[in-house]
Amino acid sequence: MKMSKEGFTSWMYFILPFLIWSNAKGQIVYSVSEEADPGNTVGNIAKDLNLNIPELEIRRFQIVKGPNKRYFSVNLKSGDLVVRERIDREQLCGKSSKCALELEAVVNSPLNMYRLEINVIDINDNFPSFKSSKIELNIVESAFPGERFTVPSAFDADVGSNSIKSYKLSPNEHFSLDVQSGGEHSVSAELVLQKALDREKQPVIQLTLTAVDGGKPPKSGTSEIIINVEDVNDNIPVFTHSLYKARIKENAPPGTSVVTVQASDSDEGLNGEIMYSFISHDDDIIADAFTIDSVSGLISVTGNIDHETNNAAEIRVQAKDKGQKPRSAHCKVLVEIIDVNDNVPETSVTSLAETVREDASAGTMVGWITVKDGDAGKNGAVALRVSGSAPFRIQNTYKNKYSLMVDGPLDRESTFEYNVTITATDEGTPPLSSISVITVHVSDVNDNAPRFPKPVINVYVKENSQIGAIIHTVSAFDPDVGDNARITYSLAGDPVTSMINIISDSGDIHSLQSFNYEEIKTFQFKVQATDSGVPPLSTNVTVNVFILDENDNSPAILAPYSEHGSVNTENIPYSADAGYFVAKIRAVDADSGYNALLSYHISEPKGNNLFRIGTSSGEIRTKRRMSDNDLKTHPLTVLVSDNGEPSLSATVSIDVVVVENTGDVKTQFRHEPMKEENFSDLNLYLLIAIVCVSVIFLLSLISLIAVKCHRTEGSLGRYSAPMITTHPDGSWSYSKSTQQYDVCFSSDTLKSDVVVYPAQFPPIDAELISINGGDTFTTTQTLPSKEKMQS
Length: 791
Known about the structure:
- By secondary structure, this protein is mainly beta.
- It folds into six domains: 117 residues, Immunoglobulin-like; 205 residues, Immunoglobulin-like (Sandwich); 98 residues, Immunoglobulin-like (Sandwich); 93 residues, Sandwich (Immunoglobulin-like), CATH 2.60.40; 114 residues, Cadherins (Immunoglobulin-like), CATH 2.60.40.60; 110 residues, no CATH class.
- Helix content is 7%, strand content 43%.
- It is built from six helices and 52 strands.
- The strands form 16 sheets. It has a five-stranded mixed β-sheet, with no helix packed on it. It has a four-stranded mixed β-sheet with strand order 9-15-14-11, with no helix packed on it.
- The longest helix is centred in the last third of the chain and has 29 residues.
- The chain is elongated and about 190 Å long.
- The N terminus and C terminus are likely disordered.
C-alpha cells in the first residue's frame, strides 16, 4: 500500500528541515526522503565542496557514471544537487536498516574527485499485510489455560520505526495475545489460552489479528483467525529446547546436516506420533534453502546459502502429532551462516594522470583506485600493495578508495615507463588476491648535465704541426631527450684563444698556430658542454695539450770547447798511465727524450788505439801508456750524436799534445787520473763520519740509561735518517729507506747543537742536522756535493 499524495506532502514539510549533510573522512553525506518528487533539492554541492558556481560548467563538473546516477543530477547554474527520479527505498535496499547511495563527482582543471553519500530515509508508505486474510487454528477442547499458539507474522516492507512494532487481538474471553520482540527486525505474536475451551458451548471462535507498524501516523493490517475447537487429544508435543542454535558455512553443499530438533508427546498411538515441518512466513526466503525430515527432525541444506545475501536464518519448526485431532508445538531454530572467503577482491582505476614528471616529489598523486570485495569481516577487508620495486605506493583515502602516489625518485633516463603491479589481498583464510597492472608514463625534465667520458682529456700534438688542423674532438653525452639533450661546446674560463678554437656544434678543436716544443711544452684549457634545456645545464672538462718533441735541434757543445771550426788543445804527460783523464766533452740538446739522449764517439782518426771516450760521459782517457813510436800531437775529432729520427750531430776537434815534463802541462786543463790505491778525500770523509756516529751512538746509549734512571730530568727522542751506501771504489748511493735512532738528551745539555750521523752515512750531499729542544731537527750546513768532491 502506498501513502497518499497529501500525506506524503505533509510528511515532507516535516522532514525537510532535518535534512543535513556532513563531511566525514573526505566524503559529503546528504539525506533525502524516499518518494521525493523529482526536482527537489538535496543540497548545494558547490557550496559544500567550496567550488565557484560560475566554474562548474567551465571545469566540466559532473557525476561519474554508476548505478545511482539515474536518481540525481546537478544544476550547474545554481550548484544544487536535485532529485532526478523517484526513489523507492524498498526496491533499492529491501529490509536493510541503512540505505546509502554512493555517488562520485569529478571536476577538471585541475582534476579532482569528490565522494557523495546520500542516505535514503524511509517513510511509512507500506501497510502491514498477512499472507492470508484468514487463519484457521484447530485447538482441542482439552487445551490448558496458558497454552500458546503461534500465529503467522505479518510483513511490512518498511524498516526501522516504520516496520511492524506490535500486534493487537480483538477482545474475547478465551485468548490473549503475547507479543514477543526478538530485536529491531523480529516481532512475533502468540495466542495464549486464558480460559479453557468448551466445544459444546462454542465450537468456532472468530478473532481479528491486527499488525500495527511504528509510523506516524501508524498503519495497520488485519487477518481473521478462525479457531476450530476439537476434541480429546489433550497432550501436545514438547520440544527439548524452545530455541535451537546452529552454525553452518556458506556454500555448504546440499545434504549438509544443520541441527536435529526433538519433541516428545506423552499420548499413545497416533496421538503420540510426531511429524516435523516448517512454519513458513512471507519473509522467510532463506528458509527455502533448508529442509526438515518429518520423522527424525533433522534439518539439512537443500539450496544455495550465501552469507553476503543473508548472514543468518530464523526457522520456525512445528511438531504435530498424528491424532485424530492433531496437536502441535513450535520451536525456533537460529542458523548462523558463517562467511567463507569466496569472493576475490576487484580493483578498478577511476582516474589516471597521462604522464608524471620525473622530478615529481614523493606524495604526488597519480590516480584513484576503487576496490570491492563481496565478503564480510576479515574476508572482505582488503589491503592493496605495490608489488616489485616500482617507486609508487598505495594510500587509503576513504573506505574502499585508494590513491596511487609517487613514493620515490623517478628517473626517466633509467625507466621511462612503469608497469605498476597492484596486488589486492583480503584477510581471509586462505586469503584471496587479484592483480592489476597500471601503466605510468614518465615525462622528461632537464635534470642531467652533459657528461664527458673523462674529467681530464690529454691531447698529444706534434710540434711544427699544420695551422688549422683538428687536434682533438670533444664529445659529451646527455641522457635527456629533445632540447634537453642538444649539446653545444665552448671554451670556458680564460681560454688561450690565440692558440686554439672550438666548433660549437661538433666539438672539433682547431689549432690557430704551429707549436714549438722548445718554447711551450704543454698548456691547458677548459671546454664547456651546455645543453639546450630550460634552465640549461653544463659541464666542464679540462683539456691538457702536450706538445710532442721532434728532433729539430742539433747537439750544442758546451764551453770550454767549441764546435765552430776551432781546434782545442789538451796536454798530457808522456808518463801518463792507462786510464789517464784527458778531457771531458759536454754537450746539450734542446730537444727532449731520445731526441736529447746524446752519445759520444771519436770519429777521427778511425781505429784510434791510444785514446777512448765514454759513450755517455764524454770523458776522453788513455787506453795505454805512451811509447816512443807514438806521435807527439794527436788530433781527435769527437762526434756528438742524439738518438732522434733522423739523428742530428755536432763535432768538436781536440789536439792532444804529449809533453815530457808534467810541469809543462797547463794547470787549467790538467786532470789527474784516479788511482784506486791512494787514500782519497772521499774515504777521509767517510772515516770521519763513521767515528762521529760511533761516538754519538755511545753517548746516546749512555744517555738512554740515564733517562731510564731519571725520567723526570730528561726526554727520549726517536729519529729517522736516510740510508747512504758506500762502495769499495769510493762511490756512494742514496736510498729512500730510513733507519731510526733513539737519542736521549738531558734538559740541561740541550742548549748546544749536536750533529748526528749514522755509522754508514758518508758526509756527501748530506745535511748537518742539529737537535734542539730534544726532538727537533734543524739544518745548519750543507756539505760539498759529490761532483765537487770527486773533482
